[in-house]
From TrEMBL, chain A:
Component of the proteasome, a multicatalytic proteinase complex which is characterized by its ability to cleave peptides with Arg, Phe, Tyr, Leu, and Glu adjacent to the leaving group at neutral or slightly basic pH. The proteasome has an ATP-dependent proteolytic activity. It is found in: Cytoplasm; Nucleus. PROSITE patterns: PROTEASOME_BETA_1, PROTEASOME_BETA_2. GO terms for biological process: proteolysis involved in protein catabolic process. GO terms for cellular component: cytoplasm; nucleus; proteasome core complex. This is Proteasome subunit beta.
From TrEMBL, chain B:
Keywords: Cytoplasm, Hydrolase, Protease, Proteasome, Threonine protease. One of its GO terms (biological process) is proteolysis involved in protein catabolic process. It catalyses: Cleavage of peptide bonds with very broad specificity. It is found in: Nucleus. GO terms for cellular component: cytoplasm; nucleus; proteasome core complex, beta-subunit complex. The lineage of its organism: Eukaryota, Viridiplantae, Chlorophyta, core chlorophytes, Chlorophyceae. GO terms for molecular function: threonine-type endopeptidase activity. This is proteasome endopeptidase complex. The keyword Cytoplasm applies.
Length: 290, 211
């Protein structure tokens, strides 16, 4: 971040940052805003118009809904590149606030032979994104030239969609992961947030996984890792997210995209460690504690 | 969750303590001993419930030393109620007191936020309780045997864990009868699973199929 310029206080002496005067006077308090790196000034002050407040404004539609809060949500999604392609993983829970309501939600979607997307956040918005991508894939199919959208193209398309919705104050409340294999055979992973912020990397994660799984990926992920190592790494990451994220269940899916083909596995569960000795009587020496 | 059976009481709790969406402790012990045969089930604000259990167990130890007799469950419950009620503006503790004494056998008292005291045959509390009121109403019978009561409590806690994000992890059961308190720990993978959940595979298998 660009640091804000400090004004050095004449009252407090050299080398000390502080207000220009120890007790600011009206000359300081009421002066017009000074240009700063964050806000270079030219012309009038910035202002905002809420289109829904302007009657008859172009595009104002009183029947339009805006997603202000998510209702049914998915939690983390994580993905890594490995030797043959990419692996993407997520659990299958659609939580309704703090209720584990839908335990078989599909949070990953196969767009075409070479791309899978995964989403956390509002499930209805993700289902809408699936419809949009389905329309693109159908158009591809109709041109009948065997060419499909590449993962990178789908990623760019989704960046534009998410950013444009954000600009209209009507975001699609999702954190998306796009994973696939490019025409040159190399794996591709991208992350697009509900703001339109996006990046690509060898490993991507959203939600709790971005804090819990990312350190594991940084330590162990290599672009040329074997499938067995990649699956073990993803399992470990899924376990950590299940141990520490309230809104998760022990029911996961993994999608695999390689040059040989694409598949999303059926739901499976992982063995978890509950057999630590301390867990049996954790408060043996601290009665009344938790 | 706690219930009375023919010969004592059974108490059960899950093991999850969370801070926002982060699970800070996945195997906590929510069952605090107040006397040799009286236990406190704690939910709501963790520090508030803990301070109540610390104070009451202190008073109980002192009184039992003076009287040279074990205290009745009702007396212990009233002590808990006094703290909850006199400090009702500052405490958020939803508590259940359950235990066994020779005179009235097994008893369960609910002491929700505010400091009401209510003698019940069974009691549930905590965020997960909302999901199992119907189950408890339908499944409870008078004069359960010990095994039936343990199954009732274990199933209730497991059902709550299945639907509530704030409940999960391991199940702890404590059965209190004339012989004393008997503790049981059911690890998270062995807890009952319900429709739409998967049973956990054994440690030897990889546990997944890749297409």
């Amino acid at each position: 971040m660009i640091p804000a310029p400090q004004s050095h206080s004449k009252a407090l002496g050299p080398g000390v940052t502080g207000p220009e005067l120890l007790n600011p006077t009206s000359a300081v308090l009421e002066r017009p805003p000074q240009p700063k790196p964050q806000q270079p000034l030219a012309g009038g002050h910035a202002f905002m118009v809420d289109p829904s407040a302007v009657p008859g404004a172009h595009g104002a539609d009183p029947t339009r809904q805006h997603t202000k809060y998510p209702y049914v949500t998915g939690t983390s999604v994580m993905a890594i590149k490995y030797k043959d392609g990419v692996l993407i993983a997520a659990d299958t829970l659609g939580a309704y606030g703090s209720t584990k309501r839908y335990k078989s939600t599909e949070r990953m979607y196969q767009v075409n032979d070479k791309t899978v997307i995964g989403a956390g956040g509002e499930i209805s918005d993700f289902q809408h994104i699936q419809t949009l991508l389905d329309e693109l894939s159908t158009d591809d199919f109709r041109t009948d030239d065997g060419i499909q959208l590449t993962p990178q193209e789908i990623y760019s398309y989704l960046c534009r969609v998410m950013y444009n919705r954000r600009n209209k104050f009507d975001p699609l409340w999702n954190s998306l992961i796009v994973g696939g294999v490019q025409p040159d055979g190399k794996g591709f992973l991208g992350n697009v947030t509900m703001n339109g912020t996006h990046y690509t990397d060898s490993h991507v994660a959203t939600g709790f996984a971005s804090q819990l799984a990312r350190p594991l990926f940084r330590e162990r992920q290599r672009d040329d890792m074997s499938e067995e190592d990649a699956v073990t790494l993803i399992h470990d990451a899924l376990k950590v997210c299940y141990y520490r994220d309230k809104q998760s269940i022990n029911k996961f899916q993994i999608a695999k995209v390689t040059t040989a083909g694409t598949s999303i596995s059926s739901a499976f569960s992982l063995d978890m460690r509950w057999d630590y000795e301390v867990f049996k009587e954790p408060t043996k020496f601290s009665i009344g504690a938790w | 969750m706690a219930c009375v059976y023919d010969g004592g009481v059974v108490l059960g709790a899950d093991g999850r303590v969370s801070v926002g969406n982060y699970i800070s402790n996945r195997s906590s012990n929510k069952i605090a001993p107040l006397a040799e045969r009286v236990f406190l089930l704690r939910s709501g604000s963790a520090p508030d419930a803990q301070i109540v259990s610390d104070h009451v167990s202190f008073y109980v130890h002192n009184l039992e030393a003076e009287q040279q007799l074990p205290m009745s469950v009702e007396t212990v419950a009233k002590l808990v109620m006094q703290i909850n009620y006199q400090n009702k503006d500052n405490l958020i503790g939803a508590l259940i007191i359950a235990g066994y004494d020779e005179e009235k056998k097994g008893q369960v008292f609910g002491c929700p936020i505010g400091g009401t005291l209510s003698n019940e045959k069974w009691a549930v509390d905590g965020s997960g309780s909302t999901f199992i009121w119907g189950y408890c109403d339908a499944a409870y019978r008078d004069n359960f045997t010990r095994a039936e009561a343990e199954a009732f409590v274990e199933e209730g806690v497991a059902l709550a864990m299945s639907s509530d994000c704030s409940s999960g992890g391991c199940i702890r059961l404590v059965t209190v009868n004339s012989e004393g308190a008997h503790h049981k720990y059911i690890n998270g993978s062995q807890a009952p699973k319900f429709q739409d959940e998967l049973n956990v595979p054994g440690p030897a298998t990889g546990g997944m199929i890749l297409g």
